[in-house]
Amino acid sequence: MPAEPPEPAADSFSDLQSLPCVLMRGGTSKAAFFHAKDLPADPAARDAVILAAMGHPDARQIDGIGGGNPLTTKVAIVSPSADPRADIDYLFGQVVATESRVDYAPTCGNILSAVGPFALDEGLVQAQDGQSVVRIRMVNTASYCDAVVQTPGGRVRYSGDTAISGVPGHGAPVELRFSDILGSSCGALLPTGQARDRIDGIDVTCIDNGMPVVLMHAVDLGVSGSETPAALDADAELKARVESIRLQAGQRMGLGDVSAKVVPKMTLLSRALAGGAMNTRTFIPRKCHDAIGVLGAVSVASACVVPGSVMDGLFTVAADAGAERRVHDLSVEHPTGEFTVRLLMDDTGRAIAGAALLRTARPLFRGHVLVPLAPSSHP
């Protein structure tokens, strides 16, 4: 059998630059992971390289490693943290390929679940025997998360028996413990100062517990909320109404002009179909997605414990007889399954103190991505 030809050296291409890259699945998303030190320090030059690597401005991203879908067109930029509260800094970028830009406004909780394993695999954090805790600062929102990763024998274990909706098979659990995420983008859990607002004749709740989200009853917009994402995407009138509310809500939430941002996320609510707390359909920002994001689900679940929110009449958290609840496990249904969020309450049982949830993650490839030398920042 003939010998395999040798792989070219990383620097053997005269007109292509080579960047170390790990493609990882985190939860129900995929992202290209880069060390910050391997990318240009100048933000414009950095984004030009990222866009070239992902394949802008083609929607299919045929000339890059992007997946042609917002859930698979993401990047994570990781570096050691100078913050005493964190081991790792994680900067998330949502690549908007057809617009040739990278949106750093939100963070991504799905991709966050792969940051701890990446940091351990890459030697940025020393793995412990049994399990390792990686303290992560989410740069986009200046908030923190402890990722608990399974590391028997001091190495990351990716196989396991944890299943999550939207991902085939099973994997090792990655527990994400969030703190200081209330108002992470908007400065308050209820950015408008009230649990319910009325925009374009629709009652909405604007909430931010890790992700700015606007909640609305699906029936108020003339749909049931059980439609497929494709059917909702095909409803041009519905999407125009949702976008009008989004633009106004963005201003009220202190996010400014959100016409070029992917936040706030817009979530339609309806009664649960499979025993959960509620059923959801989420637009990010103008496309109805097959799932719901990690932190988006946290914000949606949080509305269940906010008196007066639009969750009233749809789902109400009941207090334990004779005692205030300290923990609420809430199942957020979405088109491809459900997402269970654990809300941790303070000593009074009335205010949210933190949140935790389980995800799985794994690396898909490790190597170098090749991009043209000095890529233009314009298409």
Give the topology:
Elements: E1 16-26, E2 29-35, H1 43-54, E3 74-80, E4 88-96, E5 101-103, H2 109-121, E6 130-138, E7 143-151, E8 174-179, E9 197-199, E10 202-208, E11 212-217, H3 229-233, H4 236-252, E12 265-270, E13 278-283, H5 294-302, E14 327-334, E15 337-345, E16 352-359, E17 361-372
Parallel strand pairs: 2-3, 4-6, 11-12, 13-14
Antiparallel strand pairs: 1-2, 1-17, 3-4, 4-5, 6-7, 7-8, 8-16, 9-10, 10-11, 12-13, 14-15, 15-16
- Write the CATH homologous superfamily of the largest domain: Diaminopimelate Epimerase, Chain A, domain 1
What is the CATH topology of the largest domain? Diaminopimelate Epimerase, Chain A, domain 1
The radius of gyration over CA amounts to 21 Å
Poorly predicted runs of 5 or more residues: 319-323
Number of helices: 5
Shape descriptor: globular
Q: Mean pLDDT across all residues, rounded?
A: 92
CATH-defined architecture of the largest domain:
Roll
The profile of the biggest β sheet is:
17 strands, mixed
Distinctive features:
alpha+beta, Diaminopimelate Epimerase, Chain A, domain 1, 17 strands
Structural features, described:
It contains five helices and 17 strands. The chain is α+β, with helices and mostly antiparallel strands and 379 residues long. A hairpin with a 2-residue loop joins strand 9 and strand 10 (202-208).
